[in-house]
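Budget justification aside, the reviewers requested a transparent look at the raw inputs and outputs of the sequence design task funded under Objective 1. We therefore reproduce one unedited record. The lines immediately below are the structure tokens for a 350-residue chain.
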């Protein structure tokens, strides 16, 4: 789980890698980016990662469609663009995606994958067309977060975070793309890899070669939180949220051996853990006492209930006794009355 990302403001921030990889575009190759969008563009498009302008790269449209675009040269020498894109509304602000665009010269097709899954079935090269050669002019500049450099036309700046970008000198297979998505990155044909965590001051370092990128106009490193990629199940999302709470609470985002304060951060984090353990111990003891109190309360309540039962029983017995006395008195009176009637009858006979 890597939460480091370069944040782009959607105005003028960008990373310039340069023209050194422009020659890849006339042969099989792949480009890949892991990103999240803060704000969708209102007009035009936003360039996430690709070559100068809108000519070749991964882009986001105002309608929320993710686009992989490349340009071709026709037999007559004219140029034209061809695109593969997702449905409208596919890209949601704040969610993280991994997008991969591949160009296969042998197959004569381009493909777009998002989160390890292919969008559609690829797009065939137009008959007689050849891939545009970006190495012959400024279109070969590889950039993140913008098309043309700030101040020129067709900038199409990106608003959001970019965690990583990669470029390969081969067309990745669907299994390669999926392997990258699950974090088992293929090294075959890897020409450049730029991870946000490898940023120092105004440079993002290429962890594979020496094609380091220069950061312009304030694109900044952010470690706000770890995000689950779009489509992750609820269990994974919950794990990420718990990780965010833990690392943010302890203040140990992006520890580095090059950071002289790393040991101090770890010491502070450990002390916080000890303090929390102490609080948990106190809370556990309090809960234990409360449990005992509750147990005593239950015993007392049970005894009280028994007493109440006994009292109620006594009352019932008392009521029964009263009824018996009433019946006995009535029976006695009846007997006396019968005796009186008998004596009167005897006197009358005699």
């Amino acid at each position: 789980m890597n939460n480091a990302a370069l944040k782009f403001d959607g105005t003028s921030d960008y990373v310039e890698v340069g023209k050194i990889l422009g020659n890849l575009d006339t042969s099989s190759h792949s480009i890949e980016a892991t990103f999240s969008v803060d704000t969708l563009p209102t007009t035009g498009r936003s360039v996430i990662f690709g070559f100068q302008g809108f000519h070749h790269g991964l882009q986001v449209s105002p309608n929320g469609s993710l686009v992989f675009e490349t340009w071709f040269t026709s037999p007559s020498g004219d140029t034209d663009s061809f695109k593969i894109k997702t449905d409208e509304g596919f890209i949601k602000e704040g969610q993280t995606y991994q997008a991969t665009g591949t160009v296969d010269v042998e197959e004569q097709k381009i493909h777009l994958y998002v989160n390890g899954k292919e969008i559609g079935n690829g797009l065939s090269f137009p008959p007689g067309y050849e891939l545009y050669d970006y190495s012959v002019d400024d279109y070969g500049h590889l950039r993140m977060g913008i098309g043309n450099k700030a101040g020129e036309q067709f900038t199409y700046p990106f608003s959001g975070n970019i965690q990583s970008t990669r470029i390969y000198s081969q067309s990745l297979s669907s299994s390669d793309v999926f392997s990258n998505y699950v974090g088992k990155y293929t090294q075959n044909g890897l020409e450049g890899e730029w991870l946000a965590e490898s940023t120092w001051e105004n440079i993002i370092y290429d962890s594979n070669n020496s094609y380091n990128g220069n950061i312009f106009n304030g694109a900044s490193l952010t470690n706000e939180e770890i995000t689950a990629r779009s489509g992750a199940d609820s269990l994974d999302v919950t794990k990420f949220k718990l990780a965010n709470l833990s690392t943010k609470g302890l203040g140990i985002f992006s520890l580095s051996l090059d950071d002289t304060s790393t040991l101090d951060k770890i010491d502070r984090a450990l002390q916080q853990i000890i303090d929390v353990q102490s609080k948990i111990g106190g809370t556990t003891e309090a809960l234990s006492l409360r449990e005992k109190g509750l147990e005593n309360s239950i015993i007392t309540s049970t005894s009280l209930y028994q007493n109440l039962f006994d009292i109620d029983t006594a009352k019932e017995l008392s009521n029964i006794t009263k009824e018996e006395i009433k019946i006995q008195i009535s029976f006695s009176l009846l007997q006396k009355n019968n005796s009186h009637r008998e004596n009167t009858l005897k006197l009358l006979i005699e």
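DSSP finds three helices and 18 strands in the chain. The first strand starts at residue 5 and ends at 9. Computational costs for records of this kind are itemized in the attached budget.
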